[in-house]
Structures are given as structure tokens and as C-alpha cells.
Amino acid sequence: MPRKPAAKKTTTKAAKPTKDQINKLFNRLAETAASEAQHPVQRRSPEELLYDKNDLTPYKKHQAWPGKSYFLVGNSYNTEPKVRDTAHATRRTACIAMIIERGRDNVKCSSVQEALAFEGFAETLSRFEYDWLRKQPPSTLIGPAYDQKGNLVPEAFAVWRYEESFKSAPKKKALAVR
User: Fold this and answer.
1) H/E element, 110
2) What are the CA-CA distances from residue 29 to residues 24, 25, 176 (Å)?
3) Exposed, middle or buried by CB within 10 Å (0-12, 13-18, 19+), for 64?
4) What distance, in Å, lies between the first and last C-alpha atoms of the chain?
5) Is 73 in a helix, a strand, or coil?
6) Which residues 6+ apart lie within 8 Å of 88 measured at CB?
7) According to the model, what pLDDT value does residue 168 have?
8) Phi-psi region of 121 (alpha: psi -120 to 50; beta: other; left: phi over 0)
């Protein structure tokens, strides 16, 4: 039986772009750059972002700062204004408001354990929020969340973690060397 000759492997090279295609690409690039120049994106340095994140003025102003022993871990989710009008969002807002009203020592913060024990609150949390809050130490607090302008964000909550102060080790007396 005669053997069939092996088929030649053909590789196709990408066609080189024509001058017309290159010009179109450059024109689109120039248009994009011009539109971004008209509407510049406000980019901020990491130092500015860090400063904003640690700005506790809204919390202090609204008596929602637990004190120097606590640091702000963050908000439950992005506090930028969003359009939300659902039954779930309304229920979540109501549950967060109830937790905050039960705050202790006029600070408007409740412990994570108290919040998770409150009927209805756990059902309004996302699975991630619920699992993460369950793993927090009992000293962790939940309080109201404020955006960067100092406005209350009713559908979010702030998480505050207790920071243990480290005691310095007792100083040992130096031995006299003779």
C-alpha cells in the first residue's frame, strides 16, 4: 500500500499592519489622551490615602470613637454613596441602627458578640462579613460608619479592634564590673 505524503505544516505569520491601520491607531490614542486631559483623573498618593483612612475626626465629632485603645480596622464595605432601595438594604440599615443605639458608655459602639446575638443582624450580613466578625476577639467593637466627608453611611458599620498596650520589660540592674 502506498504511503501518503505527510501534510506540510503551515504556519501563518501575522500580517504586518498597513500604514492606514497604524494611523488609525495613533489617531484613537491621541483622541483618548485628549479626552483624559480634559477630564483628568484625580489620583492621590499613598500618603494622602493613609492620612484619610486614619482621620478619626467624624467619629470623634459624632461621639462614635471608642478611645485611644482602639484602632479603626475599616468599614463593613465601600462607603461611597450608592443608590440602593431594596428590602434587604432597609432591613440591614435598621439592624445596624439598633446595634449602634445599644452602644455602651455613650460611645455608640457595641461588641461583636452582642451584635451577632442580636436577632436579625446576622441575616443581613454577607457570608464574608459574618465569618470574619465571628473570628474577631470579643473586645472588637462595631459602630457607625462615616464617609470621607464626615457623613453617616447608614448601611455600613465601622469595626474597631482593641490594641493591647505592650508593657516594657522590667529593667535589669547592671552588674558592676571591677
Assistant:
1) strand 110-111
2) 9, 6, 76
3) buried
4) 106
5) strand
6) 124
7) 46
8) alpha
Residue 74 Cα distances to 55, 78, 110, 118, 174, angstroms: 12, 9, 15, 21, 45
Contact status, residue 129 vs residue 144, Cβ threshold 8 Å? no
Task: Encode burial over 73-110: b for 16+ CB neighbours within 10 A, e otherwise.
Answer: eebbeebeeeeeeeeeeeebbebbeebbeebeeebbbb
109 Cβ neighbours under 8 A, 6+ residues apart: 64, 66, 100, 103, 141, 142, 143, 160
Cell numbers for 56, please give them.
478619626
The grid coordinates of residue 34 equal 485628549
| Residue type, position 114, single letter | E
Per-residue pLDDT of the chain (178 residues; tens, 9 = 90+): 566 666 665 556 667 788 888 888 778 877 877 766 666 656 555 445 444 556 788 888 888 888 888 888 888 875 555 655 678 788 888 888 888 888 766 678 889 998 999 888 888 888 888 999 999 998 899 999 888 788 888 888 999 998 876 444 455 555 555 5
